Amino acid sequence: xxxxxxxxxxxxxxxxxxxxxxxxxxxxxxxxxxxxxxxxxxxxxxxxxxxxxxxxxxxxxxxxxxxxxxxxxxxxxxxxxxxxxxxxxxxxxxxxxxxxxxxxxxxxxxxxxxxxxxxxxxxxxxxxxxxxxxxxxxxxxxxxxxxxxxxxxxxxxxxxxxxxxxxxxxxxxxxxxxxxxxxxxxxxxxxxxxxxxxxxxxxxxxxxxxxxxxxxxxxxxxxxxxxxxxxxxxxxxxxxx
Length: 241
Ligand SMILES: [Zn+2]
Ligand SMILES: [Zn+2]
Prior knowledge:
By secondary structure, the chain is mainly α.
């Protein structure tokens, strides 16, 4: 029992009942995967928001004869696409408005470069920053500010999908979660991970699974069910004989 790790410091980990941190890390594997997912998706968020800079854009239901020339630009979307406001640690999401994607990633790259004595990737775009940060992810999970990083990078995805929802593309999966067993798994279009929906009304555990892990689990369950059917058939026969 000496190998008990401290509890994960990830924000809202386990919905208030935090999991154990992974070895050599201050956060659990699920929170690390979440941060990886949120970093990986940043370039995609940029492309997505780029397509939603004007109201009604990308919706597909354009009204013919509408006055396109006077279409205003969405400032909330622009402020995420361009450098600018980033949250100050501890700020509430709603207090400052949408955070800038490039500036948020730059701040974290700068901090990590400082700490590790690396050259800060000054001219990197969001795609390059995302790749750069992912390379330093393992190291970052052992730093005391990792909870702030998870919060701020996660807020980018939350904000972007709030401003231009792709919830219409969310697919609900039939198989249960590997971790909590609930049928609460959802996948947002274009995302690599399947997520156990941890919203209050759904009650999932927030775990993240790759497609392969999900398929593996479903195959396992199906196999186990077949096995137990065979066993019970045999037992019945045994009783009859
Ligand atoms: Zn955690
Ligand atoms: Zn779950």
